[in-house]
Amino acid sequence: MNVPDYTPALVVAIPLLGAFLTPLVSRIHDKVRNGFVIVVLALNAFLIGLLASDVFTNGIKTYVFGGAQDITLPIVRILFEVDGMSMFMAVISAILVLVAVIYSWAFMKENTGLDKYYTLILLMTAGMLGMELTGDMFNFFVFLEITSISSCALIAFWTHKGESVDAGFKYIVISAIAALFVLFAVGLLYAQYDALNIAMLANVLEYTFLDKIALVLLVVALTMKAGIVPMHMWLPDAYGRAPSSVTVALVGVTLASLYGVFRVCFTLYGNVLSKITKQIDFLGNPLTVTVNGTLGFVIILLAIITILFGVIMALRQIDFKRLIAFAAVAELGYMFLGIGTGIAAMGTKHGMTALTGGIFHIINDAVDVGLLFLVAGAIYYATKELSLNHLGGLARNMKYTSIFFIIGLLAVAGMPPMNGFASKLIIYQSTYQLNPILAIIAILSSILLLAVFVKVFYSAFMGPALPKFKAVKEVPRSMLLAMGIFAAIIIVFGFFPQLIVENIVQPAANALLGYTDYITHVIGGI
Amino acid sequence: MFPFETLLETLKTGSGFWNPLIWITAIVVAFLIMYILRGFGKKEYKEKTDQTQSFLSGNPEYEKEQMHIKSSNMYWGFTESLKWVYDVLFRMHTGDVSDYVLWFVIVMAFLFILIGVI
């Protein structure tokens, strides 16, 4: 299906405009405001769906801001360049934010200042969609900042809780440092090539000393924002202390940063990294190494550390949300394991399969972890308690929430027939072909992850009915609906994995590898 | 939108395949077999008799609320044997934002060296 050329701009403009209108609509009535925000995000999700269908079928789409759509040298105008990977990430963001807002209807009902809350959610949405759709490095930085500032305010939204404010402070420090280094890297590139457009930069990049510095700055800053070990420590604080609805949206923000890493490694530097080889002296023997191969193995190393750290730390957590946050860190490791194997074994069949598995796991992780955070929020809503030591027997009072937790548990632990199993199986098999030890660690960690959530299930839902939770009731319907949407996605993705891989994941993987298409779509048009 | 056949397609996983529908069919068949086998069992179980009482080596049974195992007591053996790992990990997670930035600097330095070498 063909959509109008301005649709990429529209999907960022709609939440942005919605954000500024929300305080005004809020003056009419709270329910009108809530409904307005849901309609705005549902409309946006619909447009993203149409745009995704168009991009997956017809290829890259560009939108040039500021008048005529023709591109002239030098490219000084901002443009959005939307390929399969951008749309894949945009679909994830749209789903996460829409579900978060539906959940917020009842979950945040008792809070004051909700006009600001919804404004910030919409700003955050505009920011992360902007990061995913832009074809301009400086524009990417601007959207990164919009996302960071709105996220920080949302993490600290429960200002009456010192821990939330503390988590918000840590997040803004980390985000400010990351953004500063991204800006510095953009400056280094601009100073050399007089360009900010990603396609144009990718075309002229020479891998100079300054380019190497820019690469390191971009990769480290964005991986820190993505929560890779050992730069993950802000993540359990932020995920654990923010309201659950915000945490779900934050998962999207984290993944937007992950997308930034992919865009830098595969597109911006894709042209040079795939070609450069170097002879180094290794213990007296000459050794030929490729930058891509080395980068791939570094990513794999970080991925394995991330998986192990995440799982081992999750096992000892008592706080329900911090436990899920550490599990989310481990899940990030699985994505990086797939992507890293894809880079290290680029050009081989198992390399391509690993990349597909890694990308498939991004969307699976988003819904799996998202569902678990919503369940944690539901338990907090019903009991005002998040310590697993104080919970118990809740399956009696919260039947639907318990079922949703079981679905999330099986999915995140990679148990068949849930979606997490399909993507993890692809990752296991492809990493096994690169090095069996990697696959063994990944499988053992998955078993540990299952043990972690079995512990949670027993602690929170099983056991005798505790007198203090006698009056606990099931959560309101809007919260159940939000959890139900995620659960339905998990089941559909789990039952029909080939359908998802073929229609959504493969175009994203092809887009990541097809950096020449990304470049020629802009440069070739001149 | 999608032809029905595409829903039944098998996922190629590199060196293998995965089809959840076949898996579910196999599980359903396995449960059916289990159910049939269960039918051959002895029917001597009597509800609400001493057969259903817990026997804790002659000790009195606690109230049910007291029998619930707390989360922090679970996997005690596992976490105890990995105590040295947890000591290191907890020492790393100080909660101090300055330390978070320090790790950022360390990783950046590592990558600078690596990229410098190659």
The residue-averaged pLDDT of chain B reads: 86
Alpha carbon gyration radius of chain A: 22 Å
- Overall geometry of chain A comes to globular
End-to-end CA span of chain B:
49 Å
- Sketch the topology of chain A as an H/E string, one letter per element: HHEEHHHHHHHHHEEHHHHHHHHH
* Average residue-wise pLDDT of chain A: 92
Helical content class of chain B:
55-70%
Order of helices and strands of chain B: HEEHHHHH
As a percent range, the share of strand residues of chain A is under 5%
Multimeric status of the protein: heterodimer
| Tally of helical segments of chain A | 20
Point out poorly predicted stretches of chain A: none
Using a beta-carbon cutoff below 8 angstroms, give the protein chain pair with the largest interface and the number of residues from each chain. Answer: A-B, 71 and 51 residues
Structural class of chain A: mainly alpha
Described by strand count, sense and barrel closure, the largest sheet of chain B is: 2 strands, antiparallel
Tally of extended strands of chain A?
A: 4
Q: Main sheet of chain B: which strands, in order across?
A: 1-2
**Treating each run of at least 4 consecutive H or I residues as one helix, how many helices of chain B?**
6
